[in-house]
Design goal:
The protein is mainly α and 148 residues long. It is 43% helix and 0% strand. The chain is built from four helices and no strands. The protein starts with 10 loop residues before the first helix and ends in a 10-residue tail after the last helix.
Length: 148
Amino acid sequence: MPVQDKSADNPEIIDRIKKYIDRELERSDIPIVIVMDSADHAEVSVNTTDYIKKIAELYPDATVHHVNLCEQGKLLEEYWDSLPVIAGELNKTAQELHGYLHLITNTLSSHYPVKKQNDECQSLLEKKIEPMLVMAELEGIKLNRGFL
């Protein structure tokens, strides 16, 4: 059930934050926990600043940073050699049930290079090939549209 009051002082929100960070600390051998504010399908919270302050209160020995993804990578640089390398399709989320591993059902996804190639191909078809087929037909040239 969704939480209605999403303020950083809401006990339910505090409990969720604490459970998440504690679970992430247990999962990792490095002393950094990354907490994303939004994702590819969620908006940034209006309470981000308050959440950061609350996290700093809950973990007084920690240094809490609010950074972008590039800065996040720099924070992780000294630990790169100790991070696991996973190759291939990342479908582990479909094999294990955890709160942090899930697939959004009925959602098609692909890696950025595949998306970029698809966009380039689609643009080529829309902007060049289809107009050329129309022009050919106007000139009486019948081409096999199945090739399109």
